[in-house]
Design goal:
Blueprint lengths: L2 E4 L4 E4 L18 H12 L1
Antiparallel strand pairs: 1-2
Length: 45
Amino acid sequence: MKKRILGNSNLEVSEIGLGCMSMSGAYGSVVEKKDMISLQSKALG
């Protein structure tokens, strides 16, 4: 996985991110909490 330095913080982070705005219901109906937990678990390995 590619990594890069985050701004001027000297923190190394992955270039891949998981956008979570849609999990809040901001874009429509709210998704089941259990489904979001499952998604996050899979994303984090």
